[in-house]
């Protein structure tokens, strides 16, 4: 009997993608179009007022990216017509009922055509405004799922979560709902959606009554998100609202053919469509970039922790493989996509590789000065980090405050700027602390089984490889990731 083919599975399929302007969404779209040009149609849900502005946004923010260079070269003069034939820029929003698709005829057509839904719409800011994070990461999942239930030919609803829905739990973390089961039990006692929506509404009304500025509203709602996350036992707004999204999926999936992908920290492309492509700063990248530019003398991190990161094209390959393997199955299986179990790397090793790269390829400032990389001072506890900051920065700040008072507020602007920067640093440290001191290792038994099934059952499995054991960390970090970060993000800032 002839082996099955993932490419054949994708042939003639109609797919809905939410979160198409995000890192994962873009790499997924590019891969499908490049390897299976005979896909029937891909609907891209984009926040826009109408089709014209959605199309413009697609061309500017997605198709126009360098990521599509290989596909553009492959298609040549036919590139634009190929995109127009295969991709539908759809104005809508996951925060609204029916995904914000206003025309009934359009919705009916989609519900009669769509076979796969790839739901990766998310706001990934750790301290996003609570109202926004809830709308997108939690209730957006509800809207996507309700829409999926109306799709008559649906074979797969694949939802992208995050491995860090585990919160600050350590140890061996399983590919199941155990980290959120306690919350699931708690939520049977009250209506989470009604309670949190009511609190958000009250808080916004309170700010409106105070005639608060937009900046005050934003900062207050950010703080409110962290506060609510901690009430429920999560360290920040992002992982809390993503966990709540998973809970709603589990409770309301019914007979949906559901798969949940939980990637760890997603980094630049390993191989496809070319090595090193990345969009914006991911979690680890802001640290690398600041260090590279000589602006990061110290960091709160345990150098011996295993830092789990995975290239984005491997995540996308796992997603496509999971779609093919689990089509029309109702297991609700969860996959961790990461490296901490099968190919771990410690932060101290990442630091040594980056230090070597920065020494051999120093950053040059706009004025021509060369930045000399120094060894990073690392603090393993919040207490030791606070003590360092107290001596190095907070005491001089207090001295500046006294001098400012003595000189009749002459140094007020300097003092305010210094104070604001210090507060921002401490806020960021508090936000990132759960990850810089994270002690968990993500089990990937399900993912290993997915790889085994893919290799055994599909003749084109090599095109969708996502084995973390094949990554040579020194080679990837020094020859792919940091050069890619420099080229695609740092030099474009």
Structural description of this entry:
This protein is of the alpha/beta class and 493 residues long. Helices cover 51% and strands 11% of the residues. It has helices at residues 6-10, 23-35, 51-63, 69-75, 79-86, 104-113, 130-148, 181-187, 192-209, 214-232, 237-252, 283-292, 312-326, 347-360, 382-406, 412-436, 445-457, 473-488; strands at residues 14-18, 41-46, 87-91, 116-119, 156-160, 171-173, 258-263, 265-267, 298-300, 309-311, 333-337, 377-379, 440-442. It has a seven-stranded parallel sheet, sandwiched between helices. Helix 2 packs across helix 13 (312-326), helix 10 (214-232) packs across helix 11 (237-252) and helix 14 (347-360) packs across helix 18 (473-488). The chain is globular and about 75 Å long. The model has no long low-confidence stretch (mean pLDDT 91).
Layout: helices, strands, pairs:
Elements: H1 6-10, E1 14-18, H2 23-35, E2 41-46, H3 51-63, H4 69-75, H5 79-86, E3 87-91, H6 104-113, E4 116-119, H7 130-148, E5 156-160, E6 171-173, H8 181-187, H9 192-209, H10 214-232, H11 237-252, E7 258-263, E8 265-267, H12 283-292, E9 298-300, E10 309-311, H13 312-326, E11 333-337, H14 347-360, E12 377-379, H15 382-406, H16 412-436, E13 440-442, H17 445-457, H18 473-488
Parallel strand pairs: 1-2, 1-4, 2-3, 4-5, 5-7, 6-13, 7-11, 8-10, 9-12
């Amino acid at each position: 009997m002839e082996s099955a083919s993932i490419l054949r599975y994708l042939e003639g399929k109609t797919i809905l993608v939410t979160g198409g302007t995000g890192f994962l969404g873009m790499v997924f779209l590019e891969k499908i179009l490049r390897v299976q040009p005979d896909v029937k149609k891909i609907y891209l849900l984009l926040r826009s007022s109408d089709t014209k502005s959605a199309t413009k946004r697609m061309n500017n923010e997605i198709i126009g990216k360098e990521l599509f260079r290989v596909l553009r070269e492959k298609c040549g003069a036919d590139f634009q017509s190929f995109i127009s034939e295969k991709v539908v820029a759809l104005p809508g929003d996951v925060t609204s009922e029916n995904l914000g698709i206003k025309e009934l005829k359009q919705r009916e057509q989609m519900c009669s055509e769509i076979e796969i839904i790839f739901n990766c719409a998310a706001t990934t800011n750790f301290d996003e405004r609570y109202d926004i994070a809830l709308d997108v990461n939690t209730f957006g999942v509800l809207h996507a799922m309700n829409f999926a239930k109306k799709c008559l030919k649906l074979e797969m609803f694949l939802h992208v979560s995050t491995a860090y829905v585990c919160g600050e739990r350590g140890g061996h973390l399983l590919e199941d709902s155990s980290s959120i089961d306690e919350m699931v039990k708690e939520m049977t006692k009250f209506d989470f959606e009604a309670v949190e929506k009511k609190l958000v509404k009250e808080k916004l009304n309170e700010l409106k009554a105070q005639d608060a500025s937009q900046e005050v509203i934003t900062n207050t709602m950010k703080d409110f998100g962290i506060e609510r996350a901690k009430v429920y036992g999560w360290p920040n707004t992002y992982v809390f609202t993503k966990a709540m999204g998973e809970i709603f999926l589990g409770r309301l999936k019914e007979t949906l053919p559901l798969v949940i992908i939980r990637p760890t920290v997603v980094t630049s492309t390993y191989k496809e469509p070319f090595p090193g492509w990345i969009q914006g700063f991911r979690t680890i990248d802001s640290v690398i970039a600041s260090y590279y530019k000589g602006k990061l003398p110290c960091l709160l991190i345990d150098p011996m922790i295993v830092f789990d990161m995975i290239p984005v094209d491997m995540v996308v390959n796992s997603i496509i493989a999971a779609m093919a393997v689990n089509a029309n199955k109702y297991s609700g299986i969860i996959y961790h996509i990461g490296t901490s179990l099968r190919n771990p790397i410690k932060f101290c090793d990442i630091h040594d590789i980056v230090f070597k790269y920065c020494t051999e390829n120093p950053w040059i400032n706009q004025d021509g000065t060369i930045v000399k990389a120094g060894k990073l001072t690392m603090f393993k506890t919040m207490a030791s980090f606070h003590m360092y900051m107290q001596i190095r920065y907070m005491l001089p700040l207090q001295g500046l405050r006294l001098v400012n008072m003595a000189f009749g507020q002459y140094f007020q602007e300097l003092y305010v700027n210094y104070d604001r920067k210090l507060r921002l640093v401490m806020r960021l440290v508090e936000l990132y602390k759960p990850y810089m001191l994270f002690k968990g290792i993500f089990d990937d038994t399900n993912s290993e089984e997915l790889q085994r099934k893919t290799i055994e059952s599909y003749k084109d499995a090599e095109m969708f490889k996502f084995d973390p054991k094949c990554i040579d960390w020194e080679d990837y970090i020094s020859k792919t990731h940091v050069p890619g970060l420099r080229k695609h993000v740092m030099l474009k800032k």
